């Protein structure tokens, strides 16, 4: 494997693990009744937990984007949800969907299909038995809405 190939693979692994951190921070944020921002929840978590310095910038970027655009992310997800309300989803499914939706809507260097695949993988790891299929369906609908999200 070339040096560039190894570097690309390492970046993908770091981002995959960063997404798992984002879901955990989101879960902690919701469990605390969302009193602080996601960025403040991350700062709190880092006082007792250690994260690889290579992953931290991506975690910070996504949590910052989620903090700044949560209303738009939720509106886009709500549009993609059929016969469901976002607030009725499990905390983990909501965290996974918000993470992927933030990437799809606001991160240009991550292809939407990668965000969807990564979300499915997180749903397989952390969600219930129906989570992977559910997450795939919602994010596929979001992706098909187009770059601007709901009209």
Helix and strand topology:
Blueprint: H1 3-31, H2 38-45, H3 56-80, H4 91-106, H5 112-126, H6 131-145
Helix pairs in contact: 1-2, 1-3, 1-4, 3-4, 3-6, 4-5, 4-6, 5-6
Supply database-style keywords.
151 residues; mainly alpha; N-utilizing Substance Protein B Homolog, Chain A; 6 helices; globular
Summarize the structure in words:
- With 151 residues, the chain is mostly helical.
- It has a single domain (3-145), classed as NusB-like (N-utilizing Substance Protein B Homolog, Chain A), CATH 1.10.940.10.
- Helices cover 72% and strands 0% of the residues.
- The protein is built from six helices and no strands.
- Helix 3 packs across helix 6 and helix 5 (112-126) packs antiparallel against helix 6.
- The mean pLDDT is 89.
Strand content: under 5%
- Whole-number mean pLDDT: 89
The tally of helices reads 6
CATH topology: N-utilizing Substance Protein B Homolog, Chain A
From the N-terminal CA to the C-terminal CA, the straight-line distance is: 44 Å
- The helix-strand sequence is HHHHHH
What's the short version?
The chain has helices at residues 3-31, 38-45, 56-80, 91-106, 112-126, 131-145. It is 72% helix and 0% strand. The chain has one domain: NusB-like (N-utilizing Substance Protein B Homolog, Chain A, Orthogonal Bundle).
